């Protein structure tokens, strides 16, 4: 009983408190790449943030995270998802995050902290989302206490009303994607509860599996950048790594979870590989960097060029979205394709202060550097300039 009470007081008190795509990728890792070794590295993109005074709190929360196990009810819930297989549930029944694989300390610059994860991909893949949520909540509970709850609630109501009061947005669908940059677990819970209560059919669900379970909404997500990055080291050769990643995904899910991520090598390289076979096989694609209107138009033209009816395909937008931008995108593409929106920080950390722009990305797989070359240059991430230059050459990308 004491252990349960202490766990409830921690920022993360369930291993389900993460994004669905971590589980969908983890199942692929179990079945196809169980021996892969990886390294992740944390980065704060917001200048002038001093997290060093809170290092002990962050370490304590991570230690508690590593003590968590999946409960029987959590495993039953995951096992009820149509694409989750029984052997994966058996593995999760034995799973815990290995504390020996995560290293937390001071960074090289004043106020900067360093978080590195090294170990088997299968055993470390679930670190990213809860660790980022821990850093956020520790920072904001020390610097924004108490939060202006009424301001946050007003902003949330105003966003929902933009959709509810419009007459031409019957097709508008939004999902909550805000776990990693949320103000707190309590606010995250309130946001999902309000979206479900007020938005009706406009609310598609949540990327967070625990929120989906507790509120009876749909958990959403397919693949993340790390999956395609790892395939740079796991595939037959670098030039074929994107095709290898998509084909491996298709073998695992047989047409389910069919939204492809388009920006690990930039849109040009994605479209070169996303041929007629993939256009017809996958349900759609996700935008996560660059101009969303240009990307959407290019995707529709690409479907047309590959004799694919775009009206049956879904474009998912998830890059720094706000409700006004999502509404504008809905109107631009109405009747031409299906559209869906994943809104994160703008839902779970919008109180008038500056949210933290923090990420935790894979930088190595099996000892080899891996890279993400984004359509937004500031999102490009690689710690090996020579490898990044080689990747740009192989995928016919412009120099940085």
Write the layout of secondary structure elements.
Elements (H helix, E strand, L loop, with lengths): L1 H8 L10 H13 L4 E8 L10 H12 L5 H8 L6 H7 L9 E5 L6 E8 H4 L3 H16 L5 H16 L9 E3 L8 H15 L3 E4 L2 H7 L9 H10 L6 H13 L5 E3 L5 H7 L2 H6 L2 E4 L4 H14 L8 E4 L5 H11 L4 E6 L1 H4 L9 E8 L2 E2 L15 H10 L6
Parallel strand pairs: 4-5, 4-9, 6-7, 7-8, 8-9
Antiparallel strand pairs: 1-3, 1-10, 2-3, 10-11
Helix pairs in contact: 3-7, 8-9, 11-12
From the structure above, extract its key features.
single chain, 400 residues, alpha/beta, nicotinate phosphoribosyltransferase, five-stranded antiparallel β-sheet, 11 strands, globular, nicotinate phosphoribosyltransferase activity, ligase, Nicotinate phosphoribosyltransferase
